[in-house]
Amino acid sequence: AFGRGLATDFGKIESVFIGGGTPTFLSAENLEKLFSLIYSFFHISASAEISIECNPETLTSEKAKIIAKFANRVSLGIQSFKPKFRKILGRQGSVSTIKKAITLLTKHGISNIGCDLIYAIPGQSLEDWQIDLENAVSLPAKHISAYSLTLEEGTLLAERISNIEYRNPKLENKNNPDTFSIRMWNLAETLLK
Asked: Which of 38, 62, 104, 189 has an alpha carbon 20 to 30 Å from 74's alpha carbon atom?
């Protein structure tokens, strides 16, 4: 908890990132309170990048309006466009939820949209990954982040996918998931260039 005097000692803030989870899980009222607190305690530069992570399933028109009022960059946690992989990762919404979220953001004036994708999901093939990348490229996104799935022992996600076959049976190195992950990374680099 910063006192007002201490917070202003930082000078002008050039970048604010709200994430590391699902900020849009907050109610619209609490989301607005969060932004208001940031702006009241810190001196935010007029040219600052104010970025927030967004889960498409928890975005409403009211929240998009609040985000557009305070932020100028949104990172959408898409993870995958394929329903079966979205389900594995615990994403509840359909692909139409993603399109709805983008429509809400652009309607309220957010044009700097990024999307986060995850690869090396159990059962995911190179072709599946390529389709996800192509879908991401077709969006009005200015940034695409690609993360290899890593599992932390004891987490709900690790428990959920413990019985799913990790390896693609068509891959010659099917006993080495790290090699497969590297091939997916290389495919992303090639396709996104």
From this structure: 189
